[in-house]
Amino acid sequence: MRHQSSSGAGRRSRGGVAAAALVGMVLAGGTVVSPAWADQSPADGSVTTRMSADQPQPLLGYDFSALATGDKEAKNTVSGSSFGPARILDADGQPTGAVKADDALLFDGSTYVKLPDDILSGRASATVSIRVRNDRFNASGPWTYLWSLGGTGQQAVGSWTASTHTSLYTSITSKANGEGETYLPASKNLPDDRFSTLTATIDGKNNMVRLYINGLQVAEGKATVNPAAFGDHHHNVIGQSRYPGIGDALFHGAVQSFAVYPQALNADQIVATLPPEDLGDLIDQQATSLAVPAAVDGDFNLPVSTTVASVGWTSSAPGTVSVNAATGRAHVVPGKRDVPVTLTARLQANKVSRSSRDAKAIQQDYRLIVRGTSKDGQNAYSRVSVHDPSVVKAGGRYYIFGSHRAWARSTDLKHWEPFTNNLSRDYQRILDPIWKAWPKQSSNLDVTGNMWAPEVYYNATMKKWCMYLSLNGGGFPFQKSVIVLLTADDIEGDWSLVGPVVYSGFQKSNVAATDVPKVLGPNADLSRYASLTDTGINAIDACVKDDGQGGLWMSFGSWFGGIWMIRLDPNTGLRDYSTTYPTQANQSDAYYGHKLAGGFGNSGEGTALVHRGDWWYLMLSYGGLGQTGGYQMREFRSRSITGPYLDQNGKPAVYGRAMNDLDANRGLRIDSSFAQPGQDQVLTSQGGNALLIDDNRVFNVYHTRFVRAEGNLEEHQVRVKQMVQTADGWLVMTPFEYRDSVGRVSSSQVVGDYQVVVHDPVRYYAGSGLSSPAIYRSVSVSLLAGGRLGGQVKGSWTATGGDLTIKVDSADPGTLLHGVYRAKLGRQLDEQGHPVVFFSGLGGDVFTEAGADVSKAAGAAAIWGSRPLTDAKVQKDANVDSGHAAVPAANSTPAPAGRSGKGNKGGKAGRLPLTGSALSTPVVAASAALVLGLGALVFTAIRRARG
Prior knowledge:
By secondary structure, the chain is mainly beta. The strands form eleven sheets. The protein has an eight-stranded antiparallel β-sheet with strand order 2-3-5-14-7-8-9-10, with no helix packed on it. An eight-stranded antiparallel β-sheet has the order 48-47-45-53-52-51-50-49. A hairpin with a 2-residue loop joins strand 41 (683-694) and strand 42 (697-706). Helix 9 packs antiparallel against helix 10 (936-946). The longest helix has 12 residues, at 276-287.
């Protein structure tokens, strides 16, 4: 299932967005329409249920919108039903009067609804439908439940429940306290700013469970039981915990209606239950998820219908892309250069129902790139596959070292060639002593696939090249790994093992085999290391840096207990045992040192550190490393190498609770999946990066996978991009792969029509190839003469020297642009070899969700834009006019040179379990689970698969 981000401002699906004025799913006269299963037909005005002949009849139904304030119960409005009323109770279980809000029963944490007994007694199949508005309270704090049917969780009798705590999920079990339960998370949560219809079904024929929000399926999975197996049916409630009396909170929100059906409704039947505004939302969701490629170079097909609507198409450039209205076949006429084209879909409900008659048409813009025929950039690069590359420069060459003994070198950062050394050939003999002494386990016998993320650093004190190599042992719940030091006189080898630097996965029975007693003392309390959401970590992914004040530091860690940092002894390259650290929860640890980021099982690994000006920059890779796992680079900064590190919105890199951090604007996302003119391929899962300073330039070296629906989905290659520093001190990426150094721009080059990309921090590619709505399709932003904005935005801009400020007052829906952005101006070649003017920076106020452990963020995110530079004279002037502003960079840190120990020191390493076609089934399965938002539990599964 494709990942979909939560609804809300700035979180709409990306292939363009429905025009806000056309959402228009309103109720006649502005009043609340009764549920679809209710009909206001009796002469006395009472509500009874009358379904069409082909629509199933509910077992019971309650229209809470019809309640009067103070009513203590709601009538069952299903004609002929034997079930009685639903009673409104206070927290002590005593009858209380209804409190109404927005024509709904208000749940403020002091009341719940007791439903009749035996609703699902003897029933293997069922559907539960509730129209509800969620509340932000349910996202954090005490656990809450939306509804629960069956018995209480404390008894081994079984129950089926739905909850919006942290994220939406449903679970079902026939045992006690969640034992043996099927836990099924949804790909999105219920919104807290409007009512939605949540539908849960279970089919007793195969025990398949599904969740729908406004008719859109958001979860699917097979349970081990169904309600017929429950041993009790007396705890049927809305708003109370399935575990009453243990301290859980009551649900916060509002409910308009609730119904239970005696069978599993199919998708069409669910749609028939939706009120007009929810049907409109479904059409809107389908409009944003049509199969439209982000980039094309030939004819392609477009859909002409969805499950509930017909689709018509128009083209902004019919001479380039024309569409056959009857068949949806799109004919493409490419030019020499890339051309952006907008295709507009018009969706009209085609289902015959009360809701579809009220639903208005919805329009949706899809922006795609028609690839040009120019091949000017075809031979600019020689590619290699190196996962988790660390990067250094020595003797006029650049070297990258990656997981699984993948090494490569280059003279220009563009043409790479693999090479080997003694560690490539004789690794088992070299590493055998430490492998057998610690990481090797019965479940992980061979070191071959467990040599991860080497960090290579020149130690001027030792006059040695130092490699900090991760030996992954894996295991659960103890990640039994170690980072070891190897040294060489020449960067190309030979390498010799020195010894271990830091361990993970130790416990009382084996801690004597580590240096932990030396650091903590004998008989130390090790309990905090037993939990992978506390201080239990995986000791991998080293990054080694000199702080410029005589201190040598190593950061390390991956997911689980977070990212940590200890001081090294420059004389040995090993741990500095004279430096001690206090043990303070979520801040520092006596063994692992300073806590830099992550924790509580949240994703984040592969630290990259670099110092520029007054700032230390920390970059991490979030998500699962597979093609659809959401791997992405996030950035934080600090005045001190040991932290604390904060992001662009002032939020900490250290987490305060478990969450799915792929759904949060936490850390500046510096790259994403996008389609823009001049781009060779649409990329995904960029990460495992390293940072290199060379000739006062910052380079980001990372691995990437590719957006494709067939072939080798897990193929990965190295990419290099130059970074620039904004006026407010953030490192941001240039729009195109490095081909030549960033150049200067003049004031005459700034004005023009740009294609802009927003790096959305709450969506990621999770499949469907080039049609994925998670691919951001570049939007048109014009910097007009006189300082106004045009294209798909309105506002103003100013430029001083090489710095650009853009103020977006309004923008077309779906652009994800609003607020003030500050960027750096520059010039580079695109990936087809054509010169472009670009800006790259950050800002805005769109993405305000920063995680359940912090308050809402200011909403800033990274953006860039580019436009063709076609005037040869202007290009020449830009190179020679000393009055033109340069893109400034801070002073570089002095570094050694030469292969013999005198090369420029560079970057860091990243991570990888298995790469390419060798990606294991557990990793694929875990990555798929991540799409469903399993949070820390799934993250643990992914890390286990790596072991």
